[in-house]
């Protein structure tokens, strides 16, 4: 028996106008979550390398918990679980952003820690020997260098988080995958639509890669 | 040289009193008693691991010590780093040049030199820049001011590091093996800059393996072994007529080649 795949280009193209409205949601959840995740990452990453146990231990706990559990479980917990505690429902978009924030925040904490710890001890000593305070040495000498080294792994994390948002179709937020599912429910063109969905993710992540490569070529990254 | 300036009765700028330091089980510094007079150039020699770098790093608090007492220009450093305020003052008055230069690679040469005056002293940028250019001129690298330090040779980088330390107008300069990481052909240019600084009357504590330089520039040579000052005196005496057996064997190993 012949098995022939009948790929319908017209159906694929026709799905585009129905998928595109998902992009703003995907971008908003990704970059909104990542922006908050970055702030969390700076805070907990620095707490993680503190010599003070009462700062270090909560940071370790946070990182282990949110890095060690699936982002899907995290978003289900936030969207379905937390309202039970709070007594009021949580907006799906807010739940999605929060899930990306706490999840990427755990990974970014480790990126921040690695970046800061990768700066040679002599840099700090040179700053201190010039009379800079520890805070000034960090702010003017260590952090700017650490940030440059952090950009490649941060880009990596951004790409991972963007893809993670596809899971949030389960809480009904109208991101890319959700738009695709809704459309397929009426057209039954799963092959064509999911291919288009995949290509749209690729377009987003690939643009980000290009921007990062451009930054690297301009010498703003690395060293 | 500067031996004529060696003061006899002035208040010492550095006074170390029974300083002891431990790294875990290792007793790195043992009962160090040392006074440095203003304008004095002291070269500290000894085998690696003898504690000579640790000794000068205690003077500006990059290393803590566990027992004893250090006074730098009237500011008292206490054991176990319990002297945060004094430490800050001492560090603005004591410059340091490191073996690995430790220039800030994300800043231009000029910004390396102006950072501390602007951030620590609040010097207006224009004035800090003018001062930095003058110092870079003095160490012979005025034309490299706008480059990244990573574009410079080792010798040039170390001279920038010297200018960077001098911009805070230190009362004392510490040198931690300033030429040990340099290619041989670049050692001379750094030693020349240090020689000139000594000639201008800077108080200097220098850890180095450059014995010829030590003999020429030092007012006093200190030999350290096992964390203890074994012998000290004018270079002529320590190098040509060492009294202690350990000093003799160290010098015979170092001076042979």
One letter per element, helices H and strands E, the order of chain A comes to: HHHHHHHHH
Structural class of chain B: alpha/beta
Largest interface, C-beta closer than 8 angstroms, per-chain residues: A-B, 19 and 26 residues
Residues in β-strands, percent of chain A = under 5%
Radius of gyration of chain B: 18 Å
Q: Radius of gyration of chain A, rounded? A: 21 Å
* Fraction in beta strands of chain B: 15-25%
Helix % of chain B is 25-40%
What percent of residues of chain A adopt helix (DSSP H or I)?
Answer: over 70%
Number of helices of chain A: 9
Instruction: Report the uncertain regions of chain A.
Output: none
List the strand order in the largest sheet of chain B: 6-7-8-3-9-10
Write a concise keyword list for the protein shown above.
heterodimer; A: 223 residues; flat; B: 257 residues; alpha/beta; 4-stranded antiparallel β-sheet; 9 helices; disordered N terminus
Written description of the protein model:
The complex is a heterodimer of chains A (223) and B (257). Chain A is built from nine helices and no strands. The longest helix of chain A has 31 residues, at 134-164. Chain A is flat. Helices cover 78% and strands 0% of the residues of chain A. Chain A has helices at 9-19, 22-48, 53-67, 71-86, 92-117, 121-129, 134-164, 176-187, 190-217. Chain B is α/β, with parallel strands linked by helices and 257 residues long. Helix content of chain B is 38%, strand content 24%. Chain B has helices at 52-59, 84-93, 109-121, 125-138, 154-166, 184-199, 211-217, 235-240, 245-255, and strands spanning 14-23, 26-36, 41-45, 67-72, 75-77, 94-97, 172-176, 203-207, 220-225, 228-233. In chain B, the strands form two sheets. Chain B has a six-stranded mixed sheet with strand order 6-7-8-3-9-10, with helices on both faces. A four-stranded antiparallel sheet of chain B has the order 2-1-4-5. In chain B, helix 3 crosses helix 4 (125-138). The interface between A and B is medium-sized, with 19 and 26 residues.
